[in-house]
Amino acid sequence: MNAKETDGRDGRTGVAVVTGAGSGIGRAVTRELLRGGWAVALAGRRAQALEETAGDDGQALVIPTDVSQPAEVEALFAATAGRFGRVDLLFNNAGTSGPGGVPVEELPYEAWRHVVDTNLNGAFLCAQAAYRQMKGQTPQGGRIINNGSVSAHVPRPRSVAYTATKHALTGLTKSLALDGRPYRIAVGQIDIGNAATEMTERMRRGVPQANGEIAPEPVMDVADVARTVRHMAELPLEANVQFATVLATGMPYVGRG
């Protein structure tokens, strides 16, 4: 069954949109889905990075996209539906941590706004576009998985913009899940802690702790995150993982602070 023939009813395979697909978790999830037979539209700001993720897979569609721009998000979903006929999954993954280690009183408004525009506004715009597509297609429905981070539960020191957006994303997930019920749109969230990517390389060297110390932290293989996302994605639409937390076993999360 190719992407155009997928009817979305079995919840096993279909057409996915992955944002932030050019690196890290987005790259790992994209490749895991492609291995599983999904067609995937890869979205992100850097075309070359997206091409590297896609490789020569014929079921990968590269669409450079700034998720904070409504017109670009609209074009992303139009191109995906135009190529593959429908959208069965959105992995809402694009995000930025912003400037690290900056005290609240010194954080420039422009830096705050950039994080909010990418992490929260971008997630909303992509979810909205996915809703429109999933509600209108036949068979109706699909799934949205938001990347929340363990910062959706507890902050790290001097991470006010990132943490605020990730807390907000939890509210977005709950509202989307409720509003999607009549249309067979299942919405869940995965909160990830210390997956080994370029972004978390510093964890091995040492990062600030709540008590003021600098300490290295354990990380986990990003492939384990990708497999978890795929498991969530391939459930039938009658079942939903509302919230999942996947983290390096020994990281300071339980008991943080």
Automatic annotation (TrEMBL):
Record key words, sorted: Oxidoreductase
Entry's EC annotation: 1.-.-.-
CDD domains: SDR_c
InterPro entries per record: NAD(P)-bd_dom_sf, Sc_DH/Rdtase_CS, SDR_fam
Keyword rRNA-binding: no
Gene Ontology MF term list: oxidoreductase activity
One Pfam assignment: adh_short
EC top class named in words: oxidoreductase
Similarity comment: family membership: Belongs to the short-chain dehydrogenases/reductases (SDR) family.
Name of this protein: SDR family oxidoreductase
